[in-house]
Design brief:
Blueprint lengths: L29 H6 L22 H4 L7 E6 L2 E6 L3 H4 L5 E5 L7 E6 L2 E10 L5 E10 L2 E3 L9 E4 L3 E8 L8 E5 L4 H8 L43 H9 L3 E8 L14 E5 L1 H13 L4 E4 L1 H9 L10 E5 L14 E5 L7 H9 L1 H13 L10 E5 L15
Parallel strand pairs: 1-16, 3-11, 3-13, 13-15
Antiparallel strand pairs: 1-2, 4-5, 5-6, 6-7, 6-10, 8-9, 9-10, 11-12, 12-14, 15-16
Amino acid sequence: MTARGRNGRGDVALAVPGAGGGPSASPGPAGARTAGAAEATALEALRVPDALSARVPAEQRGAGRDDVRLLVSRGRAVAHHAFRELPEQLRAGDVLVVNTSMTLPAAVNGRVGGERVVVHFSTRGADGRWAVELRAPRGAGVTGPRRGGPAGASVRLPGGRALVLEEPLGPAAGARLWWASVPEGVPELLRRYGRPIRYGYTDRDQPLSAYRTVFAVPSPDGSGSAEMPSAARPFTLPLVAELVRRGVLFAPLSLHTGVASAEAHEPPYPERFAVPAATARLVNAVRAAGRGRVVAVGTTAVRALESAAGADGVVRPAGGWTDLVVTPRRGVRVVDGLLTGLHEPQASHLLMLEAVAGREALRRGYEAALQERYLWHEFGDVHLILADEERNPPNCFSNER
């Protein structure tokens, strides 16, 4: 997003639209989608130089996926580490909540009449339609914004297939995302003709494997994420094994991330999620024991987990659509910490980070990241946010201060 930080995933969290199994033409209450946009982030005055954009994956810059830096904010204290030192920052009994959604090759070439477009497949609806965004090709594999619609437009796709735009998501004026009737077999279409969505700050196309994490598993219906849940990207199997050896627990869930805006910092649209019963039990047990911490790997994991939590802080098995935004005013009900990428200063993700860390802690962390020249975006460095437990008792509902 750079609207959502363009780090892939989702920064916000919660609330499942009611029965019906999926979003309608305008899923979720409009107030939920605009709540984040109405609040300024703590970092809007900061500016991130273009030179700090990670342009290629870490394994092409260094020794491997885990060859990135780890900024650690523990309360208002800031420390600098290598990501391989993550096991030393956690303790036995902590649980890492990870998103298992698999990144899709969601960008496909198409035509509307004589106009060339790139179709970004964002979200599969429960009724079989897909939310899509049409983009204008700009050369070298990147795209630019294009006016959405119009309703009824037919988009020709490879292999003699086509989709038809039906209605916009959200307000019709300027809507990027549209519900479209699609041919059968979209997952097969994406496998044959699709490629990962690429952003302008990257140097070149990358293989799909570069956009998938070690936690990703296929969805039975072929659904997945248009944008990589990128906070988990630096994890390797040896690192996971070391964390397990030290007594750190893992809890899986899924949230399929949709397409974020590359140009406008807008709050995210509803996304599909599932929190399994086993994950709910493990998280509740860790919280009840009062010794371990619940650390979400990525804003997507926060969004899904908080969507399954009641006002009492108890996580229950849940699935469906989530569209509320986690803000400092709402606070977090379950999460004690967050491992995430570095987000742009206007990104709505930062409201969630502020809800976990507090405004001053977030400001200090980002100022240190700029000073030490950390790398931004999905191939960049990562940020571990942990509460200052002397100031914030475990399992507090809000860290706003």
